[in-house]
Amino acid sequence: MMPDRALDESAIIKAIIKTAIDLARLREEPIQKRAPILDLVFLLPSREEKADFEGLRLHSFDKAAQILRIESAVPEKMVASTHAERFVVAVMLDAIDAAAEFFTEQRILFDAAGHLALVESLAAKEQYALN
Predict the structure, then answer these.
(1) CB atoms < 10 A from the CB of 71, how many?
(2) Pick from 85, 96, 100, 108: CA 20 to 30 A from residue 33's CA?
């Protein structure tokens, strides 16, 4: 959800794009080719519009395509935060935990450990870059 074009150059957008690029560089990792798929959507706040919830929520599950969509409400304070990249990674880790719980309840095999390891490798690269 991009409610305001003024957010295009914000720290949160840059963090989301950087993380997406980092994941794209790892697209050959087997975990990224295996169903079920976790689709994470970041809902950004603006003057006109913001999410009506805080944190994460399960949005929908497409049983045929095996895609679980989870939404994350981005707090206003994260839009320009120097911690935006860490926030994005933390949300991804939380979303994986939520997905694992959902898929367990649905009796669908989900490699949470593999997904966590992939995202944690992104966090490790980020921490290395900060030092």
Answers:
(1) 19
(2) 85
Cβ–Cβ under 8 Å, residues 34 and 111: yes
Half-sphere exposure of 85 (CA within 13 A, CB side): 18
Whole-number Å distance between alpha carbons of 130 and 98:
28
Report the relative pairing of strands 55-62 and 67-73 from DSSP bridges: antiparallel
According to DSSP, residue 38 is labeled E
For residue 101, give every residue at least 6 positions away whose Cβ sits within 8 Å of its Cβ, in sequence order, or none.
none
φ and ψ at residue 36, rounded to 5 degrees: -75, 160
Digit-coded pLDDT (tens) for 51-88? 888 999 999 999 999 999 999 999 999 988 999 999 99
At 99-114, the pLDDT tens digits run 999 999 999 999 999 9
The letter for the amino acid at 61 is F
Indicate the burial class of 77 (C-beta count within 10 angstroms; 0-12, 13-18, 19 or more).
Answer: exposed
Q: Is the pLDDT of residue 130 over 50?
A: no
pLDDT confidence of residue 104 = 96
Half-sphere exposure of 93 (CA within 13 A, CB side): 13
